[in-house]
Structure formats: C-alpha cells, structure tokens
Amino acid sequence: MFDQILSKIRTVDDQEKILEEIDVLLSSLYQDKGLGFESTLKTSARAWLYPLLREEFSKEGANRRNLLLNLKQKIEGLSKVYITLAFEPSEDALNRFGGVIRTSVREDVIISVAYDPHLIGGVQIIYNGEFRDFSFKRIFEKEFENTREQILKSIKN
Amino acid sequence: MKDFNYYLDSLGEIGFVEELMHSLIYASGLPRVHPGELVLFESGDLGQVFSLTPEKIEVLLLTRANLKVGSKLVRTDTRMQIPVGVGLLGRVIDPLGNPLDGAKLTDTEDVRTVDIAPPKIVERVEVQKPLITGVTLVDLVVPLGCGQRELVIGDRKTGKTDFLLQSMVTQAKLGSICIYAQIGQKQFDIKKMSEFFAETGIKKNTVLVASSSSDPAGVVFQTPYTAMTIAEYFRDKGLDVLLILDDMTTHARNYREISLLAKRFPGRASYPGDIFYVHARLIERAGNFKKGSITALPVAESILGDLSGYIQTNLMAMTDGHIFFDIELYNQGKRPSVNPFLSVTRVGHQTQTDLQRDLSRELSSFLVTYEKMKQFMHFGAEVGETAKKILALGNKVDSFFNQSPTASIPLEINMIILGGLWAGVWSETKEADLRRQMERLVLAYNTEGSFKKQVDDLITQSKSFSDLVNFIRRNNEFLTSKITG
Amino acid sequence: MNQDQNILKPQLSTDPQSLGKVISVRGQVVEVEFAHRKPAIHNLLVLESDPKVKLEVYSSSGTNKFYCLVLSSTDSLFRGANVVNTESQILFPVGKSVLGRVVDIFGDPLDGGGKVDQVNAIPIHREVKLKRNVITKQEVYETGIKVLDLFAPLIKGGKLGLFGGAGVGKTILLTEVLHNIVGRAKESSVSVFAGIGERSREGLELWASLRKSSVMGNSALIYGPMGENPAVRFLAADSAATLAEYFRDEEKKDVLFFIDNVYRFAQAGNELSTLTSNLPSEDGYQATLESEMASFHERLIPTKTGVISTIEAIYVPADDLLDHGVQSIFPYLDSIVVLSRSLYQEGNLPAVDVLATTSNSMHPNLVGDFHYESVIRAKSILKQAESLERIVSLVGETELTAEDQLVYKRAKKIKNFLTQSFFVAEAQRQSQGKFVPLRTAVEELNGIIEGKFDHIPEEKFRFIGSISEIKVE
Q1: Distance between CA atoms of residues B164 and B182, nearest Å
Q2: Cβ–Cβ contacts within 10 Å for residue C422, how many?
Q3: CATH number at B4-78
Q4: How far apart are CA C121 and CA C2, in angstroms?
Q5: Looking at residue C58, what DSSP letter applies?
Q6: Residue in A with minimal Cα distance to B17
Q7: Residue A129 Cα, gap to closest chain B Cα (Å)
Q8: Domain ranges for chain A
C-alpha cells in the first residue's frame, strides 16, 4: 500500500496536502467513540487515497494508528528535488518533467518548483546540496565572459 | 575570495540555513564540505565549518550576518588564510586579513593558512640570545630570551600593558618585528594602541591584529592564530619577532561560549575539554627556530592575585615562565609592579653572560634578604647596623626599579648603576635626588658616545659582579662627574 | 612508509565489503558507518583517497556505526568519504633499532634521522593478561637526589609519581632522575621516555642533554607533545608502553620508564570523550578514566622475565590535588612525591613537600631500620616545626622555649639540607649538580636529628651535596 501511495505523490505540494489529510485522520481516530473515523475517511481522504487506505484498514490485525503514523513518516522522509524554472509549466509538462527526474535520479523523489524569470530559459536543479545550473542565463553569462572584450570594443566604437 | 555565484558554479554544491543560534548556524546541504572549510553566504557573509553531522553542518559565523532560515550558502574549498607580506608592517588588520585603518593592503606577496600544526623538534634550536625589554626589573631579575614564551599575568590595571608596550618599543628599536594581537578588546583601546605606535615611531616595525568585543565570536577566536601566522612569516625571513597576545583569558571565555553553543560538554569551570589544546597548539608555534625566533608574551588576567585559576595554570604549563604583576605592589606605588619572588623565567638565565648571571643572582638573593628584613621590622625590635644598611640599600634598589612607563633603559647602564649602588656611590644621597641622578646617567649613556664606550668596556672587562663593584668603588669619578656635571 | 605499503595490499583497497563511510566529524572524532564487514576496536583505518589520513576505531556509536579517532589532520575528511579497514592495529617498531632515537607514536623519526626499521612492528594495544610477579628481593635505585632517596626511594619494578602544579619543577626533577639513574645504569637496563603533552622545547632539551651525557644510546624517546591533536597524545602512552613491554619480555632487560606527563594522558582521553556522546563523570572527566588508567598502568608491572620501573610526572591542574583526573592515578603508585608551589616560591628546590610525600617502600624490611627510623623522626620534627610556624610568625623564633627552638632550628636545617643543585639545571643556575649516595644522605640526616650539626648555621645547608662540603669557620 505504501509504495502505491508514495508513487502518487509527485510534488512537495502533494506531500504537504497528503500530510495534512493524514493528520486530520489521526485526530479523528478517537472521536465520536471511534465511530467518527469512517466518515472522516470518506470525506477527508482524497479520491485515490480512500480505497487504498480502506483496503489496508480492513486487513486482519490492522492497527490504524500505527499504519497512519508509519505512512506519515515515510511521506515526510521523501527526498526533495528543487527545480527553478523561468516560467510556469503546464500540468502535463510538469508530470513529464517529474518523470525524467525520477528515472534519472531516484524513483521516490518529489519535486518543488519555483519560478525565476531571470533564468530566461532552462532550469536550475538542487538535490541533496548539489547545485546544477542549466539555465540560459548561465549560458549567456559564460558567453559574455568569453566575448567580453570584443563586445566592449564594439560598443565603444 | 570570489563571489557567491562563482563558487556555486564551480563547486556545484549549495546549502540552506536551518537553525540560527547566535554565532553558530546549522545548515543542510553541502555534502562534501570539509571541517574547518570557509563557507560563503549569499549575503556575502563568511562562516567557518565547525562540525559535520549526518544531517547538518555546524558553522561558526565570521561576520555580523543577518541571516534567515533558508538563506543560501556555498563552499569555497579554502581554509582560513590571510595575506602576508612586508605590506602588513605599520598596518592595523582584523583577524580575517581586512585592513582596519582605511587603505587597502599592498605588498602582500603570499597567503598563509592560519591554523597549522606547530613545528617538530627538528626545526627547533635551544634559546640562546637574550631578549631585552628595557624594563630594569625584568632584564635584571627575570630575564627573557629570544624564542621564550613568557606569560604576563596579573589583575586588571596592574601595569601589564605598559610593560608590554615598553618591551615593544625597545625591541622595535633593536630591529625586531613586533606583532600585537588585541583579542576582543574595546574599540577605543584599539585606536589608542595604533596611535601609540605612530607616536613612538615604531609603526614601521609593527603589525596590529585587532578584534573588538563586539565582533562575532568566530572572529575573536581567530585573532591570536592570525597574529601567530604573521609572526611565522617574518620569522621565516630570518627575523626575530616579538608577539603579544592580549589577552588569553578573554580568548578562553570566547571559546567557551562557542563550545557551549555547539553543545560540547562543559568541563572544569565550564570550559570545554579541549581548551588546553586550543591554546597549546598556538603557543607551541612560538619558540627559537633554525630560521629565526618568535618570542611570545601571552597575557592572562588573574582575579585577586590568584595564580591557581584553571586557565591561568594551563597557560603557565605551556609557557617558559611567568611575570607576575602584583596588585599589592601596584597599590604600594611600585611601577612596574612585578613581583620578583613569584615571577619565573625558565630559559632566560641561560642567555645571560657570566657577569649578568652573577649580578642577577646577587640581586635576587639580596631581594630575599631585604624582604625578610622588612618582615623583621614588624616586630619593632632593635635594628642592628647590618640590618640598617640592608634596609637603606633596599630602599634605593626600590627607587632603582621604579621606572616610568615610557622609559626604555639599556641593560649595560643598568648594570653599572647597580654596581654603583653596591659600591656605595649613593650611600649619602637623599632619596628624592636618587632617581634624577640615575636618569642623568641613563641620558649620558644614550647621548654621549665616550661615556657609553666607558660603560661598555667596563662591562666587558668585569668577570664577576664583585669585580665590577670593586672597580666602581675605586674609580667612581666617571659616574659622579656625570651626575653633577 | 612501511605501514602504507601494508595498506595497499590489493584485496583491502578494492574490496567493497570492508569499506566504511564517514558520516560525521566533530573535532578529532569521526563517525564511520560500516554496512558490511565491521571493524574491531583499535583497528587502524585509512582514508581511501589519501592513505596518509589514519583513524583508529574507538567504540561503537550505534548499530553499524563507530567512533574513530583521527590521528592526523581532519582537513581532507568529508561526509561520504570512503574509509578502508587495514584490519590491523597501529604498529610500533620495537627492538634495538629504536634505541638512541626520537620517534612519534607511529615510530616515525622526529630527530631528522633515517627511518626506524619497521620489521618488528607490533600492535600498541595489548590485552593485559599477565600475572604480576611478586619480587621477593626488592632493590632500590639510587637517584642521588637526597629528598627522593630518603623519603620516597625508587624501587625496582615500582612506580614513583611526581605531583605538582604548573611551574613547580616536575620536569626538571624527572629529568634529573633520568640523568642520574640512566647515566649510571649497567648494560642490562634500557630507558624509555614517553613525552605526553609536554612542551616541544623540553623534548628538544632532554634529547640534547641525553646526548651530551652520552646516555642517549640506551634510551628511546617517544614524543606526543602538547601541540599535537588529542588522539596522538592519547595513544603516545600506549606506543611507549609497547616498547617498554618488549624490552621487558623479549629482551629481558630492566626497563626504566619515564613519563612526562601522565595527567595529559587523562586530559587527552577527556578531550576525545567530550566529542563522543558519553556522559561526563566527576569534574567533567570521561567515565572510562579509571579503566584507561588501569589498562595503561597494568602493562608496566614486573613479570618473570624483567621489571619496568616507572617514574611519572603528574600535572595538578589549578593546584587542585583533589582533581579527579589526578586522583585516578594515585592507586597505581608506590611512591608519591608532592611538589609545592609555596616551597618553590621560597626557593627551596626541589620543592618537595616532605610531609605530603608517602611511599610504600618506606618499610624497615626494604630500606633497613636505620633509614626507616631516621625518616620517621625527621618527619616528626618537620611536623612539629609546622605547628610552631604560626607562633614564630607572630612573635619570632626567640620567644619559643629552648626545646621548641631546637626542634625549629633542626627542622630548618633538614629543609635546607634537602635542597640540592641539579646537573640538568647547570645552564640555568650556574651551580654544579650534586649526586649524593644514599648512605651519606641517611647518615647526615640522622646527624642533623641527633644534633651533631647544631653548631652550623642553617643557611650553610642550602644547595650542598654532602654536609662534609661545609667548611666550618
């Protein structure tokens, strides 16, 4: 169950929202003499989450609290990749992007996206303290450094 | 130091501030950073890596940073280094190597790492040359040698700084390089010190490394190490260097602050377990070497004259002796207030000539007798002739030792004057005139070439102190003519 | 270097099963994680990218994780760095090749000479499973220093401790003992000097002084001076003990083992333990202080093959004899000599506080009745004089009763008699060193007690050798 849930979490946003939902579930465990949980599960858990959880809870010897806490821990522990783009991508583009990262880095990473128009194009990636700059801005700067002398000369004339 | 983006680009690692705790911050990221490495923040602030844990790195701030959680930092792949060169002479710099007196640094031919291991015994040589301070009491009773580490200890306001400055002036005029490290002092004192060097004309032989008490703890911590590094540079040029560290008790408290913030377990007096090592590896870098010498005068403050404090005894265990400035003597009006019985020099006597050593011993033993005699006086008992004579001579010796903080007296004339005292030249002189007459002799020595030659020759010819005294007894005109003339 | 060559054996450096990863660095203590084959305590590890960086496994720090001491600079370490287990301990070269040399804890030369032969290098940590050999006939080593020979004689196979704060003369006293005994020792004895946490200048001067008196040939000096990191200072004790044991067990020699300064061994251990997460014990020291002291001292015992006689200098921080680190050393000593700052300041050198000095060897069976009686009586006189001191300072000596005056005067003479010029201080003091045979010392001490020298003024007794030197006018 865990792996299925984890694979559905794509971004840091997703992560935060799911964690919120789990917290709500945890706090409702003992409300209404234990009867509140079922209804909360139906209303609070999101569409794809609900059946997965339901299935897990109906198993033999399922301890709801422990299961939820374990799930929460796993979700909190997901590695994050921070991406800075020059513009806001579409939902589709984001998914494709995430897929690329997942195959090249690790399966269970989630992405956090930021926007900085100064990048002009391309992307900056930060993962585990490693920083890689594939932005157009950097390419231009490097170019400018190389041809600095020529450009300055031509401006003067 | 290049800029943030340069390091981000070339090293490809980034970190984020996670926790802020006064002078320490905890950051995530920077996977391959080394302990002791310098890190640069996006704001331009600088830090030094203190420890590494699996999740975080502990960074000691080196600038007054205004950081927030989430602030970015990068590796620089360099350790703490400072520029060194003759361009440092006459300048005031902070422990990071930045000038504090306006203009940029010039003529710095090299860069040196600040925290290095002390030299092994193969590079060392026994202490051989004397180090003249110009302060009579020290040069005659607690003499120092080039390459000695001598602790200058005493309560606050007992004249330690005056002594240090006198020594600096004397040594600078003899051609040594003098480096003064002000560790966490008041800003006002830093300015005063720099002006003093200019006024006394020794600026071109001095370097002042200063950190004020309002500087970040990491910067104050580096001050003596930076000063030592500069000293090593000049030593390697074949020079004799005088290094003053003012003061190490402040430095210890500063390191305690850093350690406690870093949650290192407190030991005795809440100091961290490695406080000894922090100071030892610094003090051990001074000494007499094949290339040159570094004489270190670390300063320690005592409280109510207690020499058995933890940091104080630690420093005594590292140094080759200590000069104790006694608050009791200071209150009695003695200047300098050096206590000759409680001060120790472990390698000073081996640098003295036979005559000097003989004189030292005679003088020290007289002082002990004089002291005993003074105690005896408390009983109000009848004072015999011998006792009277000792007391009279003792009084004059006290005057002899009393010295103005700006005077720097050459050893040779001191020896002659002492010989004169023993020979009875001043046995009839009133105390009020005594000091003035001695000063006249000093002046004559410094200004009249013929008198200087007389004195120097006499010193070379005398084989023992009694020889000297006997000669003066027989031919005291050469002295008396200068006093009255 | 031989040790590096051992490490680069093919199967070790490429075998991923024996690799560990650095996970944290705090001062000189590094945590290394071993996922597969775990190292043993005391194993020597090296950094894969730079074999000059050596670490020794200290203890566990969790499952699969180990605290390790870094024996060199930590500059090139980083998290994730690969560490290789050499599967052996730190090895120290033993044998005649070390005699006459000055080396560090690895046996590498510090005296500018060539490499020491590493063929017989053995691990420095030993399980102490030896049975102490009780020596029936105990011999005394004559040091020629009156106060020591009289009140705290050095027994062959025993341990003598010199306690004192900063600057009271421990090192100089130790050096004088070394100079006097080693200079007179026969070929059957060898001396090992461990310089733990002391000044490099002193190390240099000791080496020069030993060469000058031609006793360097039978001595080995092992230095871990105060400027070294705590791991090196901590292990210097073990390296030196390893060498001493070798000479005792394999070469069957009588070993004179000098340590300056055992306290620094405790202090180094303290520095290291504050960086591991062990809870601190009394006075902030490591919880393992007692066992560390024990395992070190219990290596220096007499066995069937030979004896190790130990003379150790012990620093007393802040002049506090009750300091826990200092107290942890007491149980292993046979003779305890205490140096006092007030005596030092009065110029009574060596500044030994006779009343605070005790010795197991002070027993008529060992030193003979005459010596024993004289010491008892001398101590009694000194004790009495101590209680009279107050009265004297208030009203003067002349106000005492005739009897008390006699005791007081004789006590002063004893104190003065115990002062002595050292050979090793000749450069500083410009007075010749003196060696006084034990017999003379006992006889003359007894003489003072008996009143044989009442007619000689007390100042004449200062810094002489034997009383026979005094010219009575």
Answers
A1: 12
A2: 26
A3: 2.40.30.20
A4: 10
A5: E
A6: A129
A7: 4
A8: 2-76, 79-153
**Domain definitions of chain B by residue range:** 4-78, 82-350, 355-484
Query: In terms of Cα–Cα distance, which of C434, C165, C147 is closest to C313?
Result: C165
- Domains annotated for chain C, with CATH where assigned, are 2-89 (2.40.10.170), 92-363 (3.40.50.300), 368-469 (1.10.1140.10)
- Tell me the C-alpha to C-alpha distance, in Å, between residue C415 and each of A91, B383, C382, C430: 95, 27, 8, 22
Backbone angles phi, psi at B165, to 5 degrees: -70, -40
Nearest residue to B262 via CA among B250, B244, B276, B274: B274
Candidate from B117, B265, B344 with C-beta closest to C167: B344
C159 near C297, Cβ under 8 Å? Answer: yes
Residue appearing with tokens 């960074």 = B59
Per DSSP, what are the bridge partners of residue B456? none
Tell me whether residue B405 is exposed, middle or buried, using C-beta atoms within 10 angstroms of its C-beta: 0 to 12, 13 to 18, 19 or more: middle
pLDDT in tens, chain B (485 residues): 788 988 988 898 999 999 999 889 999 999 999 999 999 999 999 999 999 999 999 999 999 888 999 999 999 999 999 999 999 999 999 999 999 988 898 888 999 999 999 999 999 999 999 999 999 999 999 999 999 999 999 999 999 999 999 999 999 999 999 999 999 999 888 889 989 999 998 999 999 999 999 999 999 999 999 999 999 999 999 999 999 999 999 999 999 999 999 988 888 888 988 899 999 999 999 999 999 999 999 999 999 988 888 899 999 999 999 999 999 999 999 999 999 988 989 899 889 998 998 898 889 888 988 888 887 777 666 667 778 888 889 989 998 999 888 888 999 999 989 998 998 888 888 887 888 888 888 888 889 888 888 889 988 888 889 888 888 888 888 788 877 65
Cis peptide before C350 (omega within 30 of 0): yes
For residues C170 and C72, give the distance between their C-alpha atoms in angstroms, rounded to a whole number: 29
Strand, helix or coil for residue C340: coil
Question: Out of C227, C285, C427, whose CB is closest to B281?
Answer: C227
SS3 content of chain B, % helix, strand, coil (to 5): 45, 20, 35
Q: Tell which residue, C309, C218, C180, C215, has the closest CA to residue C255.
A: C309
Q: Which of residues 285-344 of B touch C (CB under 8 A)?
A: 285, 287, 307-310, 312-314, 316-318, 320-322, 341-342, 344
> Which residues, in sequence order, are CB contacts of B37 under 8 Å at separation 6+?
B48, B49, B75, B76, B77, B78, B79
The ipTM, to two decimals, is 0.89
Placement of tokens 């408290």 in the chain: B253
Q: How far is CA B140 from CA A68, B133, B137, B338, B426, in A?
A: 82, 10, 6, 12, 20
How far CA C17 is from CA of B321, C52, C405, in Å, comes to 54, 21, 81
Are B9 and A133 within 8 A, CB to CB? yes
Report d(CA C278, CA C288) in Å as an integer: 9
Scan residues 287-346 of C and list those with Cβ closer than 8 Å to B.
Answer: 315, 317-320, 323, 341, 345
Question: Using the 8-state DSSP alphabet, how is residue C224 labeled?
Answer: E
C1 closest CA partner among C98, C105, C107, C150: C107
pTM, 2 dp: 0.88
CATH code reported for the domain at B82-350: 3.40.50.300
Determine the straight-line distance between the first and last CA of chain B, rounded to whole angstroms. 64
CB distance C74 to B36 below 8 Å:
yes
- In CATH terms, B355-484 corresponds, of 3.40.50.1970, 1.10.357.140, 3.30.420.10, 1.20.150.20, to 1.20.150.20
Which of helix, strand or coil describes residue C350? coil
Q: What is d(CA C223, CA B121) in angstroms, rounded to the nearest whole number?
A: 10
Phi and psi, residue B72, nearest 5°: -95, 150
Q: Pick the catalytic residue from B253, B264, B346, B440.
A: B346
